[in-house]
From TrEMBL:
Protein name (database record): Small ribosomal subunit biogenesis GTPase RsgA
Entry keywords, A to Z: Cytoplasm, GTP-binding, Hydrolase, Metal-binding, Nucleotide-binding, Ribosome biogenesis, RNA-binding, rRNA-binding, Zinc
Domain EngC GTPase residue range list: 140-287
Enzyme class: hydrolase
Lineage per the UniProt record: Bacteria, Bacillati, Actinomycetota, Thermoleophilia, Solirubrobacterales
Length: 373
């Protein structure tokens, strides 16, 4: 049986420098998306400090990071001040892949020092798996998110809807990508379509026959960064490799041959798609994708339900079992998949529970301390 693993000739494992080589461009900073707007955001950290330079975090690993500078991708470390130059509260994730930073050269060795971080514009964040009221930023300064789902695995109810909320909540435009369409699994693609509202693009792709990849490429916002999220094995690295036209990031099949037994991508790596600032940002497989708070992401991800809700008899209708509910009526008429309505109720309940916990916590902390947003 075809389990979705690649049985085609396995490319040689990439050298560690392969990804760094992608940044051997005339203007690596511009390729990372540096422009006047970002220069302005970094200005307070660079002002009157001629020894400082702008850079973008391409990768974070244990004990260090890799930074894209005007000279290419270089190893570095972060030594961020407790309070940054900016008012922004960044206690939750001090440094994330995609962050724009001010760097200095460390006098003691060759590495660069990231000494300050610019405020993030848009991001992909999830509930920190170990600190439930805090956000863990998976990718910073991203304009779009590819929500990657492999068609050879059962679609867990609510998974795509949840990813859409996460994307919208971070201010990024979601694009749903279903991988492994070449395996011809009946019904799997339709199940994905049912989870996606009409205003979000959904594309089925195959790295084997190349289907859908041009369409994905055309949907990427130019000059901006697009992050990829999805469970381990979803095909994120394969999409990036296919779009880059070369095997840069290790994919499952390569890792399966690894004598050291490595089997997961631990890096969240930023790669340039061309020299013009369009970038892709891989994230490690995220099985857990909890929400932290809702400042409009839920409504944006359920625009179809929001629209229908205008027709509910009660303005505060919960679309649960109320009389005169236009959302339930749409489900009964076959105009809205009930799974979308149930996902909405579930995600709303999760956010309400977190809001309750946050309020309790703030009450306990009492006055005198400023509550976290
Ligand atoms: N048949 C088929 N297999 C695919 C396709 N895309 C990816 N695969 C296979 O699925 C497996 C996982 O792909 P990866 O690209 O490594 O998945 P990933 O999402 O990057 O996984 P992590 O790095 O663990 O997060 C590999 O064995 C790929 O060869 C596809 O379009 N068709
Ligand atoms: Zn209703």
């Amino acid at each position: 049986m075809d389990d979705g693993r690649d049985d085609a000739p396995v490319p040689a494992p990439p050298e560690p420098d392969d990804v760094a080589d992608l940044w051997d461009l005339d203007d690596p900073l511009a390729a990372a998306g540096y422009d006047e707007a970002i220069a302005a955001r970094l200005a307070p950290a660079l002002a009157d400090r001629p020894e400082r330079r702008p850079a973008r975090v391409a990768r974070i690993e244990y004990g260090g990071c890799h930074l894209v500078t005007a000279d290419g991708r270089r190893p570095g470390v972060a030594r961020l001040p407790r309070a940054s130059t900016y008012d922004d509260d960044r206690a939750e994730t001090p440094l994330a892949v995609g962050d724009w930073v001010a760097v200095e050269r460390d006098s003691s060795d060759d590495r660069l020092l990231a000494v300050d971080v610019a405020p993030r514009e848009r991001r992909v964040g999830r509930r920190d798996p170990s600190r439930e009221l805090l956000e863990q930023v998976l990718a910073a300064n991203v304009a779009a998110v590819l929500v990657v789902h492999p068609l050879d695995r059962p679609l867990r109810p609510g998974r795509i809807e949840r990813s859409l909320v996460v994307a919208h909540e971070g201010g990024a435009q979601p694009i749903v990508v279903a991988t492994k369409i070449d395996l011809d699994l009946p019904g799997a693609w339709q199940a994905v379509r049912d989870a996606v509202p009409p205003d979000v693009p959904a594309v089925a792709v195959s790295k084997r026959d190349g289907r859908g990849l041009d369409e994905v490429l055309a949907l990427l916002p130019r000059g901006e960064t697009t992050a990829l999220i999805g469970e381990s094995g979803a095909g994120k690295s394969s999409i990036i490799n296919a779009l880059l036209g070369q095997n840069v990031l290790q994919t499952g099949s390569v890792r399966a041959r690894d004598a050291k037994g490595r089997h997961t991508t631990t890096a969240r790596e930023l790669v340039p798609l061309d020299g013009t600032g369009t970038c892709l940002l891989d994230t490690p497989g995220t099985r857990e994708l909890g929400m932290v708070r809702d400042t409009g992401g839920l409504a944006a991800a359920f625009s179809d339900i929001e629209e229908l809700a205008a027709g509910c008899r009660f303005a505060d209708c919960r679309h649960d079992r109320e009389a005169g509910c236009a959302v339930i009526a749409a489900v009964e008429a076959g105009a809205l998949p009930d799974q979308r309505r149930r996902s909405f109720l579930e995600l709303r309940a999760e956010i309400e529970e977190l809001d309750g916990k946050r309020e309790d916590r703030e009450r306990r902390l009492g006055e005198g301390r400023r509550p976290r947003r």
